[in-house]
Amino acid sequence: MDLQGQRLFVAGEDNSVVEILDLAAGKLVHTITDVKAPHSMVYRADLKKLFVVDGGTGEVKIYDTDSYKRTGSIKLREDADSMAYDPSTKYMYVVNGGEGAKMAYSFISVVDTTAGKSLADIKIDSDAVEALALEKSGPRLFVNMTGKDAVAVVDREKHT
């Protein structure tokens, strides 16, 4: 959500679009159509950029939010899906790989939204990962490994 600009960014995964709604006017103002399966997003107001996890192309696509034009992308593996965002480091933790990519394991890619690049990949011993949660008072990341009926605990600083 863009609080200052009163815009809401909506991932239309089944329709292969990202829709931008003007909350003050109560109407659709733009549709981004060059996405295949948008899953999750981060809006950086300080950069005026929207980072969209596109599972259909296995990448994070970066858009300028004044023009809505794509300004870059960060390649990941197939089936990029859920993510968690750490506002203190400006890092996205993006699930990719796994069953949808025909892999026996998954990865959590650490994406630096300031630099616009992937920093690290953390291997997760499960072909299905559905959700992530960041510890607010420490460096841990909790990973829902639905393929193992377990929760992994990851050290975000050590990437292990």
Brief description of this entry?
By secondary structure, this protein is mainly β.
Topology readout:
Layout: E1 7-12, E2 17-22, E3 27-32, E4 38-44, E5 49-54, E6 59-64, E7 70-75, E8 83-86, E9 91-97, E10 106-112, E11 117-124, E12 131-134, E13 140-145, E14 150-155
Antiparallel strand pairs: 1-2, 2-3, 4-5, 5-6, 6-7, 8-9, 9-10, 10-11, 12-13, 13-14
| End-to-end Cα distance | 31 Å
Strand runs, count: 14
What's the architecture in CATH terms?
7 Propeller
Could you give the order of strands across the largest sheet? Answer: 4-5-6-7
Order of helices and strands: EEEEEEEEEEEEEE
Strand content: over 45%
Globally, the shape reads globular
CATH C-level name: Mainly Beta
Structural class: mainly beta
Named CATH topology = Methylamine Dehydrogenase, Chain H
The CATH homologous superfamily name equals YVTN repeat-like/Quinoprotein amine dehydrogenase
Provide the gyration radius in Å.
16 Å
Number of individual domains = 1
Average pLDDT for all residues = 97
Unreliable runs: none
Would you kindly provide a written description of the structure presented here, covering whatever features stand out?
By secondary structure, the chain is mainly beta. It has a single domain (7-155), classed as Methylamine Dehydrogenase, Chain H (7 Propeller), CATH 2.130.10.10. The chain has no helices and 14 strands. The protein has strands spanning 7-12, 17-22, 27-32, 38-44, 49-54, 59-64, 70-75, 83-86, 91-97, 106-112, 117-124, 131-134, 140-145, 150-155. The strands form 4 sheets. Strands 4-5-6-7 form a 4-stranded antiparallel sheet, with no helix packed on it. A 4-stranded antiparallel sheet has the order 8-9-10-11, with no helix packed on it. A 3-stranded antiparallel sheet has the order 1-2-3, with no helix packed on it. A hairpin with a 4-residue loop joins strand 10 (106-112) and strand 11 (117-124). The radius of gyration is 16 Å and the shape is globular. The two termini are 31 Å apart. The model has no long low-confidence stretch (mean pLDDT 97).
